[in-house]
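Retro notes, structure queue

What went well: the backlog is down to a handful. What didn't: a couple of records were mislabeled last round, so from now on we paste the full input next to the output in the thread. Example, using LacI family transcriptional regulator from Solirubrobacter pauli:
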Amino acid sequence: MGRPNVTSADVAAAAGVSRATVSYVLNGVDARVSDETRQRVLEAARTLGYTPNAMASALRAGRTSVVIFALPNWPLGPVLGAFLSACVAELDRLGYTPLVHFIHASGPDGLAKACDRVRPVGLIAPAGDLPPERIEALRGNGTRGFVLLSRAPVAGVPTFILNQGRIGEVAIEHLAERGHTRVLALTPLDPQLGDLGDVRLAGAQTAAERLGVTLTHVPADELQRGLKSEPTGVYAFNDELALGAREALPDGVALIGSDDSPAARLSHPRLTTIRFGGPDNPGRIARALHAQVEGETVAEPVIETEPTVVQGETT
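Corresponding output:
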């Protein structure tokens, strides 16, 4: 087990070399260091438990390794948690230090303050929080890579398209394909989900109008009132609301949720739900950001993902 506060001088003394040689070896600098000396330095560093100072390394490189993922005002449930974990893993694999920043908890200028404090080399954030002038200011401050979260592409900046309205559309399309012309939509009660719920409901309304479906919507705690419209199908804002309503539905009423949550996968009968995007999205986001940091061409400047129905036994 290594000693606390080990320095490069300690490693140099243990290996019998200069501090410059330690720096060359541990920072991968192409210098005239023999394989024997290199191995001696690496062994000394392992034995002493030496970890290079991150700030010093950043100063030498002219940039930090920090990437901020600015999380929109979304609840941190299992689905979002899994997505964030996958993004963090992809960024870590590429050599970055990911930090998750909760926008709604830090106030209107919280993201700007966070960027000023840590000088991130990369930033993943909602487009609404990064107008063009702010992006230019961040670039001048050392941020090299950006991926914006938006409903539509943003000119000149790689964008991950998050069209939540398509979830509502896909749900109604699925029910309409199965002959349902009277559908009840259950909307969330949590104020934190209000904006997201409105966007998904608007998508459902657009599809209903296009397909000739009569759509009624009520908050989830007013299910009994909504059932007075005699729907043949129910679309719930998320799987949690769908599973909560299932036992109260009349026999034969179809039910579809959203998000493909762990609870939906384990439900019996299996809940039909909607999956937003695929498992490759975190890697696509990380690669787009990494290309910019390295000064390379971004292969996928617009990262699009389409919601898909996960067929269960409830529709």
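Agreed that this is the format going forward. Reviewer comment attached to the example: Residues 8-52 form a domain with the 434 Repressor (Amino-terminal Domain) fold (CATH 1.10.260.40).
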